[in-house]
Design goal:
Helix content: 25-40%
Strand order of the largest sheet: 6-7-8-3-9-10
Structural class: alpha/beta
Number of strands: 10
Low-confidence stretches: none
Mean pLDDT: 94
Length: 234
């Protein structure tokens, strides 16, 4: 579904991503792990059209989308759920979800999408009229993922969905990601929570200082001595 070839991204004179290359197959969960500042969020921004690469190619469903505006990329079915949730705090949960379905195709399927989101996140149905800014951190993350699903994604990009959440909520978030994948969504996940994210991953990549240094099957990477030493404390 997604093919990244020789991607290089700079912020001014500082190179943030260097020669990034990988692909995501339909139905996969591909997880990119790494420490703060490794370039994970920049990678998703470059793929989704928020940041313009200096060079390289982003291909989605056989089409070159490098440099295509972000709103046009969303219409193609490539949808990013940003780090930090980025909800509209003074709008209701329902209004925030509706904001995810403004593209023509997504708007046509809004009713179906609401049913899907409320099945995955029953608490959002009971909070539909509540202001998003008054939700707990876990509920806000559910609303952010729900808003992404309202756009009817073919490929869902998740940026640090467990960030700042209590451990029990983190487990719920990863279980939800697994369920979304089982329902047919292909997922590209970037995370600092190495253990949980690789546990559900089809494929895993380790990003260090803007470069991919290790790659392999998700659960196999959990047994890799380099990953254990650097990220799991063992």
């Amino acid at each position: 579904m997604l093919s990244i070839k020789g991607l290089n991204v700079f912020y001014g004179k500082v190179q943030v991503l260097a020669d990034i290359a990988f692909s995501v197959g339909e139905g996969e969960i591909l997880t990119v792990v790494g420490s703060n500042g490794s370039g994970k969020s920049t990678l998703l921004k470059a793929i989704s059209g928020i940041v313009k690469p200096e060079s390289g190619q982003v291909e989605f469903l056989g089409e070159d989308i490098t440099g295509v505006p972000d709103h046009a990329i969303v219409k193609r079915g490539l949808v990013r759920v940003p780090e930090g949730r980025k909800l509209f705090p003074t709008m209701t949960v329902l209004e925030n979800l509706e904001m995810g379905s403004l593209a023509p195709e997504a708007k046509k399927r809004r009713k179906e999408s609401f049913e899907r989101v409320f099945t995955l996140f029953p608490v959002l149905k009971s909070r539909a009229g509540q202001l998003a800014g008054t939700l707990s951190g876990g509920e806000q993350q559910m609303a952010a993922i729900g808003r992404g699903l309202m756009a009817v994604p073919k490929l869902l990009l998740l940026d640090e969905p467990s960030l700042g959440l209590a451990p029990i909520v983190v487990s719920q978030v990863f279980e939800t990601i697994r369920r979304i994948n089982e329902l047919g969504a292909t997922i590209l996940l970037v995370e600092q929570n190495v253990f949980q994210s690789l546990l559900i991953a089809t494929t895993g990549l380790v990003l260090e200082n803007g470069r991919i240094t290790i790659e392999g099957k998700g659960k196999e990477l959990l047994e890799d001595d380099r990953v254990k030493k650097a990220y799991l404390g063992t």
